[in-house]
Amino acid sequence: MVNSLAKFVSYKTISASPKFAGECNQGAAFLRRHCNYLGAKTKLLTTGEDTNPIVFARFNATSPNKVDKTILFYGHYDVVGAETNRPKWRTDPYQLTSINGFLYGRGVSDNKGPILASLYAAADLARTKTLRCNVVFLIEGEEESGSQGFHETVRQHHDQIGSVDWVLLANSYWLDDYNPCLTYGLRGVVHANLVVTSDLPDLHSGIDGSTLLDEPVKDIAMLLSTIVGRKGQINLPGFHDAVRPLTDAEQKRFEAIADVLLLQHPDIPNSQALIKSLMHRWREPSLTVHSVEVPGSKSSTTIARRAKATLSVRIVPDQQADEVAANLTAYAQEQFALLDSQNDLTVEITGKSDAWLGDPDNQIFATLSEAITAAWSQGQDNVKHQYPPISQGPDNQPTATPNPTRGSIPTLIRKDSSDSVASQVERVITSTTTSSVGKEAAKRAAQTSATVPTSSTLTQSTPTSSEESVALPIRTKPDPPTDAKPSPPLSVKPMFIREGGSIPTIRFLEKEFSAPAANLPCGQASDNAHLDNERMRVENLYKSREIFRYVFEHLVDKA
User: I need a surface site. Which of 188, 505, 510, 540 has the fewest CB within 10 A?
Assistant: First the structure.
């Protein structure tokens, strides 16, 4: 599996850049061939002239006790380019590198490692005649570029894919580096550009600047202030009406998360601060202004003829992406008209997807929870599973692990990398054009902001030495005193979490196949997906394979 991952990572499957179209097709062809090698029936589903194909693979049930049920696994083989952060990479991002218990390389965590873990899990069961249900794979090559052509292609091949009973994906991460998670909710998103343009050319502020001239940068600033206000208040009419009230069951899930996380993160002041932060980031909508761009001259005296603001609106269940996009467009036009400007406004909707909220009490989540407990729980003697060794030569000098597929995997030693974030590649879907406090307050604001936990807070306690990172423990309670009696086996239960990000395909697949979905985070918070030095812990990769195998084998028992 790791040898195959090395080859898989070597393909620069960057969907956002046309110059890598050949590499994307080679990566898709490699994945299809490897699925064939593992025993699956495969096909490449074309998504369009300028987009990358979907790899479709099917493992039919092989067990004498097979059940006519099907699990659909969704993933993506395309990656975000590494060129932007290339100087920060300590290794070649397209050469899988073993570093003291971690595998480094672009795509190893997002999403090539989880894809291979799930494929090998299905192949394990098929080969031993213990696969009790069908497992189909849809691995696309455009996820990092808005899943272009995916929906249409899946609809076109719906009959060939067949009926689906459950949808499973593994396209996110734990909240920290210690505790396994299961994701049951994701916010939706509407991406948009607001572009203000003048019929005049770029002008000089000393010559043409006056109260008679409507400057595009001023217009865009005033327009943004009408859409989003102080403390992120979103001013779209009726925007918050559809937000669901908090239920008692959900409140208890948030409290359970805080109880687990506070054990490893004493820097978080209290559970209520953490719960409040998670609720704001997961179950409440938000609007972010990402940038305001002024093309052309960078002179401090130029009045630019064009200004563009890029923003995103994260939405929650019962808020519909189409409606929010339409309301944002209409409201921006109305507010711009009130400025009585000489300039034009264009509203571009560059991406949108609905929120997803699964049922954490259903069959697939129950099976995933059992699988995580079986894989991650440690016995009384704390014996850990032995994984294939990462080779080193005399005096701890790095050596190469032989790899019959692509050569060798160099081995290095270095410290952990930083926290991870997501990115978004934009394209225009729709567009419309219309014309025409004092020191004490600042101190209080600084104190308040310092107590707000963020995603990076949960990685600040991550061990940084190479010795610690090898045997990073999975705990749900603190270590006992040294003189304490031996404790019973530690049973690890996953945290049921929601996330603030968006995966557009998950809700689509649920609706298209009338099947419930679940998301299994495989990597840790410090995997650095989309950033420099992306990595995945070897143990997480192998444990994910165990978890997938358990689910593919036992989910039908709960049907």
Answer: 510
Count helices and strands in the chain by DSSP H and E runs: 15, 21
Q: Sort strands 344-353 and 188-197 into parallel, antiparallel or unpaired.
A: antiparallel
- Please tell me the predicted confidence (pLDDT) of residue 483: 45
User: Quick one: residue 105, left, alpha or beta (phi over 0 = left, psi -120 to 50 = alpha)?
Assistant: left
Q: DSSP letters along 344-366, please?
A: EEEEEEEEEE--EE--TTSHHHH
**167 HSE (CA, 13 A, CB side):** 25
**SS3 category, 395:** helix
Nearest to 449, CA basis, from 295, 300, 269: 269
Residue type, 261: L
**DSSP 8-state secondary structure symbol assigned to residue 109:** I
Side-chain-facing half-sphere of 52: CA atoms under 13 Å: 34
Please report the pLDDT score of residue 428 as a whole number.
73
Half-sphere exposure of 10 (CA within 13 A, CB side): 16
Residues 250 and 283: beta-carbon distance below 8 Å: yes
Query: In degrees, to the nearest 5, what angle opens at C-alpha 98 toward C-alphas 96 and 100?
Result: 155
Length of the chain measured in residues: 559
- pLDDT value of position 457: 62
Residue that the structure tokens 């300028």 belong to: 50
Nearest to 166 by CA among 554, 511, 517, 549: 517
Q: Check residue 427 and give its pLDDT.
A: 57
CB 41 within 8 A of CB 25: no
Could you report the average pLDDT of every consecutive run of 10 residues in the chain (559 residues)? 98 97 98 98 96 98 97 98 93 96 98 98 98 98 95 98 98 94 97 97 90 94 97 96 96 95 82 92 97 83 95 97 98 98 97 95 98 85 49 36 43 34 47 63 48 60 36 39 48 95 95 98 96 97 98 92
Q: Looking at residue 408, what is its pLDDT?
A: 47
The Cα–Cα gap between 369 and 547 comes to 9
Contact between 124 and 559 under an 8 Å Cβ cutoff? The reply is no
Contact 353, 228 (CB under 8 A): no
Strand pairing class (302-303; 188-197) = unpaired
The two three-digit tokens of residue 532, written as one number = 């420099």
pTM metric for this prediction: 0.84
C-alpha gyration radius of the chain: 25
Q: What is the DSSP string of 220-284?
A: HHHHHHHHB-GGG-B-STTTTTTPPPPPHHHHHHHHHHHHHHHHH-TTS--HHHHHHHHHHHHTS
